[in-house]
Amino acid sequence: MKNIVLINGSPKVGEPSTSRHLIDIASPHFNGVQTNRIIIDVQKSMENHTTQSDFEAILNADAVIIAFPLYMFGLPGMLIKYLEDLQTFYIQKGMPEKGTKVYAIVNSGYPEPEVNLEAVRVIRSFCQHINAHFRFGVLVGGGPLLLSQGNSSATKKPLNSLNDAFTAISEDIGRSDFQNIDNFIIPISFPRRLYLFMGGRAWLPMAKKNGLKKADLYRRPYQA
Fold it and tell me: Residue 158 above 70 pLDDT?
């Protein structure tokens, strides 16, 4: 029996998140009769004070899959805090002799998935501190498009690539060895200029919702 923990590291509250969407796409790949699958939402884990029991589940996992959005070319602050507390938990409990396999699914608002590389390196470094085996990352560009466009022509190719990546994770978890596997780089299938234009326009209703005008988005309050 393989214990698999999927961690949603998105800090979004009360609205859909791409990270949770990616976990929902990945989950069916781990539904075999020989697996026990647990999904942990970091936000809820911290709010509901279930971190200790959730940390126990992670400690006993054969594989951990961490999905999160790219924030300032790194991890969301909430997820960093969660992983720091997890490391402290590991130290208090004693580092496990078995090396849990760890995978990262990182989605970015940028169309280029390569910007996620530094965040993947952070997860790799974290694994070295908890005696875990980082295996590989799934780097997704244009993550919001996957959430907003569903199963459209714009998402068909990325979704196929994601399914290939999640199948590779499932197969890797089932192996006892540690074959070298490269990161999966998954760009969007959408014109870059149009994607950036649409992304820029999306800020306008968000500004209006928060009582701001279009001109406020271009203010430079700290300019000398």
Answer: yes
- Phi and psi for 134 in degrees, rounded to 5? -75, 130
Of 38, 16, 17, which Cα lies nearest the Cα of 27?
38
Q: Over the stretch 22-57, which tens digit does the pLDDT of each residue have?
A: 999 999 998 875 788 999 999 999 999 999 999 999
- Tracing tokens 């952070």 back to the chain, one arrives at 122
* Domain segments of the chain as ranges: 2-190, 192-224
Q: Identify the bridge partners of residue 91 per DSSP, sorted by sequence position.
A: none
User: What residues contact residue 218 under an 8 Å CB cut-off, 6+ apart?
Assistant: none
Residue 41 bridge partners (DSSP): 8
Superfamily of domain 2-190: Flavodoxin domain (3.40.50.360)
Q: For the full predicted model, state whether its pTM sits above 0.70.
A: yes
User: What is the spatial distance between Cα 47 and Cα 38, in angstroms, rounded to a whole number?
Assistant: 18
Which burial class, exposed, middle or buried, applies to 163 when counting CB atoms under 10 A from its CB (0-12, 13-18, 19+)?
middle
DSSP conformational letter for 28? G
